[in-house]
Design goal:
Elements (H helix, E strand, L loop, with lengths): L8 H9 L2 H8 L6 H11 L2 E2 L14 E3 L2 E3 L3 E3 L12 H11 L4 E3 L7 H5 L6 E5 L5 H13 L4 E5 L9 H6 L27 H9 L6 H10 L4 E6 L2 H9 L4 E5 L12 H12 L5 E4 L5 H9 L5 E3 L1 H33 L12 E2 L1 H7 L5
Parallel strand pairs: 4-11, 5-6, 6-7, 7-8, 8-9, 9-10, 10-11
Antiparallel strand pairs: 1-12, 2-3
Helix pairs in contact: 1-13, 4-13, 10-11, 12-13
């Protein structure tokens, strides 16, 4: 494998190890994959304004998310069907997150159940929720997550239908026969069968509730005491509605660029959302984070923390639990170095003045008129 020096290097290894259908499922985005590329490239257009001659001999990266203290503002995003990547799947990811003292978000479409993930030992875990047409299924899932000790619900709101992922259509994507969506075992929900295009798209069309609206956020609050994070917000308008409807937090996400193509990169949408939230709830970023510098840029723009998805799955495919642990360690080490070189000793030191965005540069350009 050679020495891995950054999290992106796991992707090439995963591509070699995984069957094409599984790799393409994890790696691909919607349609032209413009947003998929932009999720990364937008970070590269944000530059640093580091401060110097500050004592950075001690750096504190700890933070609190929804009242839970974690070691760093880097958490694990929900990614589906992790046993396609490695036999240990979500078990390995849960153990690595717990060892790093950070939060793991378990996908509704996990290949390990909430109970199985809880059985790996202590850890702070959130549960990502899709709302099914059958609300009894939703109630049952939420209650099981609560009983299993999960601490929050991350409600995904950008998937009334599945985005057009052309790699999955070409591959006729379907879950391998030895795996199941474990949270739905024993429920009469139909299976993800081979279809004329993507088996997952057909499954979603049959099961996921397209009528989902803000009233359902209110409904969820009546069936659980867990805080509800709204995942998939990228505009100020929806941020204000999230505040009005009692969301505990917002995750700025474009679903890993897998839903609507030509939406902005999450890092580009972040500041609009943060401003509209006015400090009334925490705003997190999910999408495109591959470096500690990315984490710093997100925090400088007002994020309370970031969630990392694909690097975790690729590292899981390459090296199992050790790979996931290494991704978290590398991002942590890079973030700590970025803080030191920017003159920040704790997260509160990271300010908007530490970065320059494209829009800042446009504003300070002298007029040519």
């Amino acid at each position: 494998m050679g020495e891995i020096t950054n999290v992106m290097e796991y992707q090439a290894i995963a591509k070699q190890k995984l069957p094409k259908m599984a790799y393409d499922y994890y790696a691909s985005g919607a349609e032209d994959e413009w947003t998929l590329q932009e999720n990364r490239e937008a970070f590269s257009r944000i530059l640093f304004r580091p401060r110097i001659l500050i004592d950075v001999s001690k750096i504190d990266m700890t933070t609190t998310v929804l009242g839970f203290k974690i070691s760093m503002p880097i958490m694990i995003a929900p990614t589906a069907m992790q046993k396609m990547a490695h036999p240990d799947g979500e078990y390995a990811t849960a153990r690595a997150a717990s060892a790093a003292n950070t939060i793991m978000t378990l996908s509704s479409w996990a290949t390990s159940s909430v109970e199985e993930v809880a059985s790996t030992g202590p850890g702070i875990r959130f549960f990502q929720l899709y709302v099914y047409k059958d609300r009894k299924v939703v109630e049952q899932l939420v209650r099981r997550a609560e009983r299993a000790g999960f601490k929050a619900i991350a409600l995904t709101v950008d998937t009334p239908r599945l985005g057009r992922r052309e790699a999955d259509i070409k591959n006729r994507f379907v879950l391998p026969p030895n795996l199941t969506l474990k949270n739905f075992e024993g429920l009469d929900l139909g299976k993800m069968d081979q279809a004329a295009d993507s088996g997952l798209a057909s499954y979603v069309a049959g099961q996921i509730d397209r009528t989902l609206s803000w009233k359902d956020v209110k409904w969820l609050q009546t069936i659980t005491t867990l805080p509800i994070l709204v995942k998939g917000v990228i505009t100020a308008e929806d941020t204000r509605l999230a505040v009005e409807n009692g969301a505990a937090g917002i995750i700025v996400s474009n679903h890993g660029a897998r839903q609507l193509d030509y939406v902005p990169a999450t890092i580009s949408a972040l500041e609009e959302v943060v401003k509209a939230a006015r400090g009334q709830l925490p705003v997190f970023l999910d999408g495109g984070v591959r470096r500690g510098t990315d984490v710093f840029k997100a925090l400088a723009l007002g994020a309370a923390g970031v969630f990392v998805g694909r690097p975790v799955v690729f590292a899981l495919a390459a090296a199992g639990e050790a790979g996931v642990s290494n991704v978290l360690k590398m991002l942590r080490d890079e973030f700590e170095l970025t803080m030191a070189l920017s003159g920040c000793t704790c997260l509160a030191d990271i300010t908007r003045n530490h970065i320059v965005t494209e829009s800042d540069r446009l504003r300070v350009m002298p007029s040519r008129l």
